[in-house]
Amino acid sequence: MPRIAAFGEVMMRLQVPGYETLVQSSRLEYSFSGTGVNVTAALARYGHNGAIITTLPETPLGDAAVAYLRKLGIDTSLVSRGGKHLGMYFLENGFGVRPGRVTYTDRLGSSFNTAAVSNYDMAALASRIDVLHLCGITLAMNEDVRKQMKRLAGEVKSAGGKVVFDCNYRPSLWGADGYALARPHYEELLQLADTVMMNEQDAQFILGIGTGEYDRITQLKHAIPEVAERFGIGTAAGTHREINDNNTHSLTGYIYHQGRFEFSRKLAFPVLDRIGAGDAFASAVIHGELQKYPPQQTVNMAAAAAMLAHTIVGDTALFTEGEVLRALSEHTLDVER
Amino acid sequence: MPRIAAFGEVMMRLQVPGYETLVQSSRLEYSFSGTGVNVTAALARYGHNGAIITTLPETPLGDAAVAYLRKLGIDTSLVSRGGKHLGMYFLENGFGVRPGRVTYTDRLGSSFNTAAVSNYDMAALASRIDVLHLCGITLAMNEDVRKQMKRLAGEVKSAGGKVVFDCNYRPSLWGADGYALARPHYEELLQLADTVMMNEQDAQFILGIGTGEYDRITQLKHAIPEVAERFGIGTAAGTHREINDNNTHSLTGYIYHQGRFEFSRKLAFPVLDRIGAGDAFASAVIHGELQKYPPQQTVNMAAAAAMLAHTIVGDTALFTEGEVLRALSEHTLDVER
Amino acid sequence: MPRIAAFGEVMMRLQVPGYETLVQSSRLEYSFSGTGVNVTAALARYGHNGAIITTLPETPLGDAAVAYLRKLGIDTSLVSRGGKHLGMYFLENGFGVRPGRVTYTDRLGSSFNTAAVSNYDMAALASRIDVLHLCGITLAMNEDVRKQMKRLAGEVKSAGGKVVFDCNYRPSLWGADGYALARPHYEELLQLADTVMMNEQDAQFILGIGTGEYDRITQLKHAIPEVAERFGIGTAAGTHREINDNNTHSLTGYIYHQGRFEFSRKLAFPVLDRIGAGDAFASAVIHGELQKYPPQQTVNMAAAAAMLAHTIVGDTALFTEGEVLRALSEHTLDVER
Amino acid sequence: MPRIAAFGEVMMRLQVPGYETLVQSSRLEYSFSGTGVNVTAALARYGHNGAIITTLPETPLGDAAVAYLRKLGIDTSLVSRGGKHLGMYFLENGFGVRPGRVTYTDRLGSSFNTAAVSNYDMAALASRIDVLHLCGITLAMNEDVRKQMKRLAGEVKSAGGKVVFDCNYRPSLWGADGYALARPHYEELLQLADTVMMNEQDAQFILGIGTGEYDRITQLKHAIPEVAERFGIGTAAGTHREINDNNTHSLTGYIYHQGRFEFSRKLAFPVLDRIGAGDAFASAVIHGELQKYPPQQTVNMAAAAAMLAHTIVGDTALFTEGEVLRALSEHTLDVER
Amino acid sequence: MPRIAAFGEVMMRLQVPGYETLVQSSRLEYSFSGTGVNVTAALARYGHNGAIITTLPETPLGDAAVAYLRKLGIDTSLVSRGGKHLGMYFLENGFGVRPGRVTYTDRLGSSFNTAAVSNYDMAALASRIDVLHLCGITLAMNEDVRKQMKRLAGEVKSAGGKVVFDCNYRPSLWGADGYALARPHYEELLQLADTVMMNEQDAQFILGIGTGEYDRITQLKHAIPEVAERFGIGTAAGTHREINDNNTHSLTGYIYHQGRFEFSRKLAFPVLDRIGAGDAFASAVIHGELQKYPPQQTVNMAAAAAMLAHTIVGDTALFTEGEVLRALSEHTLDVER
Amino acid sequence: MPRIAAFGEVMMRLQVPGYETLVQSSRLEYSFSGTGVNVTAALARYGHNGAIITTLPETPLGDAAVAYLRKLGIDTSLVSRGGKHLGMYFLENGFGVRPGRVTYTDRLGSSFNTAAVSNYDMAALASRIDVLHLCGITLAMNEDVRKQMKRLAGEVKSAGGKVVFDCNYRPSLWGADGYALARPHYEELLQLADTVMMNEQDAQFILGIGTGEYDRITQLKHAIPEVAERFGIGTAAGTHREINDNNTHSLTGYIYHQGRFEFSRKLAFPVLDRIGAGDAFASAVIHGELQKYPPQQTVNMAAAAAMLAHTIVGDTALFTEGEVLRALSEHTLDVER
């Protein structure tokens, strides 16, 4: 059973139920998530071993996070305990033209973001990992965390493992002049990565690769091969999202592997919970690569997984390969009884 | 006031609120339903006397079921108490491409399905019934229950009452070779029935009547008259359902009476709770026959009742004839204040 | 900071959560609202001082109402306490073809509707008001309340303030021969008003102005200038609503000012909570006039505010001018994080 | 099966869940109750036929009330529909030294309190009643309702039925000089009654019988025989309640029958929901009389029923005779499994 | 890290929230428990490896059970999937003199109780177990399950492991003549057991050992040494429970080890959730034995753990050794902040 | 109307409903509180003007806090907006021997604790304040906040206002050597204070005043006069709390004014929500001083207010003077209807 590990922060999600705002309501529902959580939980549900490498406080909040990760099926044996705080975000659901809102607490003071490098025995961790997942959100945190990411990725490569890097650039985390600040770190990670989640906008804005083209697909077809060649990347994949007038979203997935692009159909669907859909796509790409599925099959499944993720409550979308295939097959969807 | 009785099982419905799955949630909402429950409650709301003939355990669950039936307006004076268990099913709501799921507990051990024939005084019951409703789900249970159905239907016929039979074939209940197993029992029930709920697929798969036609309506027009003639059925009625791309459903109702077909308009509508819509259709057909409405009016109302049933929480859809007529009339639907 | 006050009743809204009916459920969610509440709260959120002039009982229900108004940002220093009761209404949500339902308790016995004229020191109140908001719902209550409205409006005019009157004719409140009964009172209020919320149907049915035209816009263009001239009204504004087949609504706003009509785009949108949308429109018109925005800008914002109000739980829709402008700008609406 | 009917108002109870106040909360739980409801539901649970005679509005609130009464097991065939409103009360739970609070809406405008005498066919009703239950709360409403009570009681007596009258004097309903106002009406009802719920305070304050004694038991022993003799009452019964320091309550029941007093043990118990306990006592007294139990057994059961009623959520306490006997028997009370 | 495994059924607990009954409510809260679950989860929280050996269906209910067990910290790698059903019980909370009630569904049809012996590779399981926990509830199920228990216990003993047996006799499961039926099976299990949970009543009623003594402690001191000697048991432990008048319970724990009795103080405490307290006692005894604590310390901790378990929602009480010690130390219990 | 202002932090309270822990639950209820919030809200409910001086972020969380403060009746016109974060704490309720737990997020990064001194115009604020309330929790935050406290207190004194200081020493906030660190700051504040909340333990541990006495009352009688004299304090007041075996608490209040001690009765009561009781005591002392009540009356009311505060959900206990007096009067506490 392949051992996948993700290095990243676990956050507490505090959501106002229904469509009230924080001003109107007095109730919250909480869960624990994060890109690494979403990816390792999804891969565990596909039948792999998925472990999270992170640091959580020795408090009732930290205990609740660990129990929640276990419930998701994540291997928590690589979790460190220490520090004082847990990153949090509050979520107010939008409706129609009223957008949803996310409000963060001070995540820079979290146990994960204040943990010393010495908190982790990188070589020992690397020996227990076949595939390491890293993400651009973690890269945006601080210099210490960036060092930890790079060192762990280096150790995993040395030990013969693979590195997956999801670019996941968030402008609000890098601030003004963010792209310039981020670029050298992204370049370092791309050098270490075997598989990358990105699209033409990441290539253009972060790396300065590819401009002036007429449509997104053409841009993609120019930029991604150049990125792959420059950084020695085996597989790149990503999605294009459109938000339609009737409140549905559309997604098209692409994968670039061994010099060839494959695209999924454009899937249109109603949206229940949009957060975590990108992680569902990435998880299915990793799963397809581990299973050595043909790239067309992988990107089809990944797009269907991302679509399904929009129909599930919470950031972390869990379903079996069979459920993804059924969503792909377009049978009618009457209640199953 | 005509006295309608249904013979059938009362089940406990345990539904996960909202869109979480059983893995994600920790809460359930429960109610009590069943085809017989839905039909007699609807007919009570239309102004008739609706009684359920069933057996419920002498436990707090059985007490809760009886109280719930009373709340629905059902006459519970024909309910037996005994046995040990109540059939149950768990319902997880679907969203968009993610289908809803129903998980049953072991209903074969329920009080209803283990009651001895001697549990019911069939002749005495028949003397209190003008119309008896039976359904294919009950027919699938076991040999004892089948005997009870047939004996009661026979007694009702002898006493001058009418029998309504809803084919309602559920493949999961009959298992492999189900159609062959079911056929003789369906034929026996159809011989006893005055009014039947079925469509061309029931005719073809269960009875082997009608094949090879080009479209469903043509198939229907060949099969149903043959069924009616062979079994001496006065009225047959049923629906065709389509599931549309935009998550709405469409329904068209038909009725076949005295050699003539009448069809409702095709109604399209969003869906809140799909379970029980067929029972709402059947109830309105029975009501129309009791009121001696023209068949076109009956099938229009029945289709509108089925449509309305999709907009109501729970299996059992209660509304007055006036509410059905208003839904038919297509007025704008701003809030009533 | 301009001081806006509304004279009107505060009602308790008791809503069945989700889509159950009062028969099915056992839970309610309550809040406090009313046209005056909605308008002054919205104007407070736009940065003005918004006060409600009303009477509430000295009971735990009255205390709860006052606390709720404070939470909405309303200035409660003009609220009288006395009488015994609070008007209430129960709300059952509709779904699709099943309309929502409102059931009132006996509001005529409420503290507001039974307060004596001497309950209010009209001259003192007028000295603290720059803009007074009145509404046709209040006008329908009883003769005492009508006297209070007229006297207060007169005092405000004498003190140099402005009067806004929202026609808001509700047939169920005036009963048979309602238009004839209402007409003299509406005429008196229109004489006192500087700004009026109405459309061509109000003009035709209440005032007998404008008939026989071919389409609503043409009717509007004939009737409103005549009303404005006859009653010396500076600004008239209102909306046309359509209910679309796919369960969305469409709104078009108009404003008539200094002899010119301006119209908003027709906005189409899904509906979460329809009640209070007209008050959101009126509030934005008042805000636009206070800010001396060009009429085209005012009506655009008012239509967007009415649209946004449909996406917010509860009667009272609170948002900043910035949020209204963003809804107007039609950017994509992915979650904000 | 003896047919018991109660004439009285059905009220909607709106309770803040938990220990929040109306100012703090935004949620309510509702049910429907009233003295007549509580008594007939309890007697139905003991195996009798219990019907309520009342008037409810033809609104969703009225429908909800009827469905709730049916769920309680009450025979609703004697309920009239008409009028506009339902009486309501809001309940905030107390805790420790903080008392619970009840706030009424305007119940005088309810369908029951505004129904004309002609609303009820008194002779026809009387022919379907073996025991009629009336209560002092109804007597406090208005002159029309009082007339209806007296006329119905007279008809029941003429038809050979029995009348039970629960004095249930509520000072807040009769206002200043209430005792003087109430006295003639109480005397009229006592003349008609066979069984009466009262204690020495009712005798003293309402009827002016019995004063100056040293302790409540002695007062009781002087006053009740005099009342019984003066008004020709067969059975009188009632309770003495004490509120203890440790937040428990104590109750002692008495019954006076054929010149003899019997007393229950003093029962002490914790309190979950205090409302409706007196009705549970009265119901068990009526049940004991119907079953012709010895008075000592009746008063023991009635006191145990009142105690149990304090442990049940809601006004209406339902339990079987077996459950009452078990509560009397003082077995240990570990969970039953 | 010692590896503890329990062989037993996982049940779904469906609890009515608050103090309503199943008749009154419409909501349930669910969790998953069982003696084996409670014991292995508690031991995992004390720092050991706790695994459950059971069979769960391949349904959404089975998935939910597995996820819940993982959340509790239980090692689920020994869980089989198969069969069709999950045992369930409904729980209604009692209040004061009104006892709580448990209603079971048909647990004999559960996946666990219908699994074939061949479902488990007993030798392989035994090689992964240091301590095996078995319980009298499982022994009551059916002959197949009893065979599985005995075979697994035999294999564990052969492999050098220890066996803990909790007598846990439930009269309702064994039926009439239950003690005679149960005795040979209990004797077989006691022969295999190293540590036993029992008290003098188990000895007397099941084994016929010890009668006629004057008080429970004296009985205990006669019966337990005889049981220990006859069956070669190293440690016996158990509790005496009293239910006090003020709704508190009292517990005294005992342990018998190497010919000596040690007793805990009698602890009195209020009760939030009584179910699972015996399992908390057993878990702490096993923990004390694994840690080789002096018997006095072990029984003190076990009694404190049982007391704490009464203050925790749900069957499964999780707390650290530190929390148990603090409950023992009787410090004041103001909120920790 | 006297103007009271408190300078202090507003925190978000996130409470697990019922008795579950953060590990077990998935729901929270939130409110906003803080010592300054509790005191000014209580004084507003007593009829004074109560304003909070604090800084809140310009986020949806900050908006929710301001709306909540308004609902409590607090004057929010002195609230600054700025910074990024809101201090938070999570609350898990205890039960019996299981203590409640509070877990803080990183409050040092809150808007209040990172606001610059220049954020507040101290002289302008002082001109609008008759009584300033400060508290030892704020004093523990950081040097900037301490400077702001002292400067504001100085300005208020200069402007002729009064200063109330609640010692409220929290060991966890000051860390090791906390008393030594805190002492100079406490001494500075005591010099500025007119009224002080403290008891003999504060005097001893913080100030080193009073040791070696035999009982707490004697210690108090030695220490408080010395403190009052040394720092020129007009009134000192405080409470002694005991936690009783039966889960009730007892409180005795004292006040020292013009050289005389007055004590309340010792009040014993059950506890619903313990947090904020000290603030209820302080609020009533301030109210008593503002009303110039005799010290005995003030301390009686303050003790009763503290007792009542334990019976109210949430940190902030609101009740009128009449409700406090009724709690003092020890009438029986049957439900008010």
From TrEMBL, chains A, B, C, D, E, F:
Residues 1-226 form the Carbohydrate kinase PfkB domain. GO terms for molecular function: kinase activity. Keywords: Kinase, Transferase. Pfam families: PfkB. The keyword RNA-binding does not apply. InterPro entries: Carb_kinase_PfkB-like, PfkB_dom, Ribokinase-like. Belongs to the carbohydrate kinase PfkB family. This is 2-dehydro-3-deoxygluconokinase. It comes from Paenibacillus jilunlii. The lineage of its organism: Bacteria, Bacillati, Bacillota, Bacilli, Bacillales.
